[in-house]
Write a structure and sequence with these properties.
- The protein is mostly helical.
- Helices cover 74% and strands 0% of the residues.
- The chain is built from 11 helices and no strands.
- Helix 5 runs antiparallel to helix 6, helix 6 packs across helix 7 and helix 10 runs antiparallel to helix 11.
- It is elongated and about 60 Å long.
- The relative contact order is 0.06.
């Protein structure tokens, strides 16, 4: 028993290096499975991503969801985002927007900007524009370009925030600087129609 615990400890200490190594190697996969089965959240998430993408294993979204859930239940925010996505799109699990929202929200509350953006989208879909704008702002302030784009739309439309073309311009400019083509298109139109907002 001591030998197994020592082996797990050594693997856990070296896990980041294994994750950076050739991910398709049998040794890396074997070590990842060993650590995942021992209950470590990081390797569980890695194993989930491998099953989701078919990296070194046969693609199996049900198996991916299983490993994501194990890691997500331990608070692993990346696993929570992936699990939320699987539930939202009904991949490997039955589509369940409520379950999706639960996992996205858990990751969002840990500061994951992608999850914050998705929570905002879910509020928007439900017609809660103020809630959507609040979550978009958190993600946008964290640098998430999709949220910056969405927050710009909220300011242009006055959805959940006071209508403000200058704020829309500022958020779209940030998104455009990150390569968001829609934001650049919106800036071009806004600056053509309301040049005073684009200073």
């Amino acid at each position: 028993m001591t030998h197994i615990n020592t082996t797990l400890l050594i693997l856990m200490l070296l896990f980041p290096f294994y994750a950076l190594a050739d991910s398709s190697s049998d040794e890396t996969l074997s070590n990842t499975k060993l650590l995942a089965e021992a209950g470590y959240a990081g390797p569980q998430w890695v194993l989930g991503t491998r099953y989701e993408t078919g990296d070194g294993v046969t693609e199996d979204l049900t198996e991916a969801a299983k490993w994501y859930r194990k890691a997500a239940e331990q608070g692993h925010k990346d696993a929570q985002v992936h699990l939320g996505s699987l539930y939202y799109f009904g991949k490997g699990v039955a589509r369940d927007v409520s379950e999706s929202t639960k996992w996205f929200r858990k990751a969002a509350e840990q500061g994951d900007t992608i999850a914050q953006y998705f929570v905002g989208r879910l509020y928007y879909i439900d017609g809660d524009y103020a809630g959507a704008a609040e979550w978009y702002r958190k993600a946008a302030e964290g640098g998430e370009s999709a949220a910056q784009l969405a927050l710009g739309y909220a300011y242009i439309e006055g959805q959940g925030v006071q209508m403000n073309k200058i704020e829309a311009y500022n958020w779209w400019l940030k998104a455009a600087k990150q390569g968001q083509k829609h934001a650049q298109n919106n800036l071009d139109i806004l600056c053509q129609k309301s040049p005073w907002a684009c200073k």
